[in-house]
Amino acid sequence: MTFVLKNAAQSFRRFLDSAFRDLPYCFVYIDGILIASRNLNEHISHLKVIFSTSHGNDLILKISKCIFAKPEVDFLGPHVSARDIRPIIERIQALLDFNRPNTIKQLRRFLGMLNFYQRFLPNDAKHITKLSDFLVRIKRNKNKSIDWDEDSIKAFKYCK
């Protein structure tokens, strides 16, 4: 399918969704497929169905991009395993190294980074809300220096 067309990506996604819809162990995102299996024998069985379904829908899998029979993988940002889904440490390092923002633009950037990882941060919503409320209270000039209050500093440190 040519991706020059405006809606080609969405059309391809719908096509993949319909092709693999009946496979509860198959998770499709854009052109990525994650197969969740409990053990190696089940995984081999799942792969046979995926290959058959792909062939039946004239889909070609690029073997060099495939990873088979791995108990843990990085998929769409988080690290996925049978035990849990967690952020990739290397990717959250930027968040951990983030200095307290000096401008509104920097604070917005920090909040955007937090938003991506929010589901991995227990009880963080109230602290993120404090930072968001703080952002609303300060002036809208994005390059203006921020005067931090004590509650906002605590919220920033907790979120970091």
TrEMBL record:
One Pfam family name is: RVT_1
InterPro entries found in the cross-reference section: DNA/RNA_pol_sf (IPR043502), Rev_trsase/Diguanyl_cyclase (IPR043128), RT_dom (IPR000477), Viral_Replic_Matur_Polypro (IPR051320)
Name all Reverse transcriptase domain ranges: 5-78
What is the superkingdom listed in this entry's lineage? Eukaryota
A single BP term in Gene Ontology: DNA biosynthetic process
Question: What is the official name of this protein in its record?
Answer: Reverse transcriptase domain-containing protein
Please report the organism this UniProt entry assigns to the protein: Trichonephila clavata (Joro spider)
